[in-house]
Amino acid sequence: xxxxxxxxxxxxxxxxxxxxxxxxxxxxxxxxxxxxxxxxxxxxxxxxxxxxxxxxxxxxxxxxxxxxxxxxxxxxxxxxxxxxxxxxxxxxxxxxxxxxxxxxxxxxxxxxxxxxxxxxxxxxxxxxxxxxxxxxxxxxxxxxxxxxxxxxxxxxxxxxxxxxxxxxxxxxxxxxxxxxx
Length: 181
Description:
Blueprint: H1 2-24, E1 43-47, E2 56-60, E3 67-72, H2 77-93, E4 98-103, H3 113-122, E5 128-131, H4 136-140, E6 148-152, E7 158-163, H5 168-178
Helix pairs in contact: 2-5
């Protein structure tokens, strides 16, 4: 009986340890946190008219261009908390990568476009913002929590994948992986 408890305990440690590695964004390829083996199939989604953004559509990840995608929700307190670090990262990266924030909220129905634009302005967002109302992009990029971020290189392969809040330096380091630095 003790042997069975010991084996169950050891298995639990392995599962919890693996979950911690995935949650930190430092998972090896076998756990889904490293570079994507295959390019991500792009999805075209609607953009939101807001500061630094425009009304229209965007294809993500961008074809033939490094892309940084931040997944957020207007209801998400940690998303609000990390906006100053995203603003600073955006300022540092400039036009080297397409920088876009995406909400999976039902913009235009459950949440108005004005609500997203006001949230965006209140948090000093000044880059492209889009709505993945079908969550197709989020599904392709395996987004399971908010905030989450993905840095995708020009070939469409994920080079950095993380969830949770991060510092400016962490964002810049992650984006630079997609820039092949």
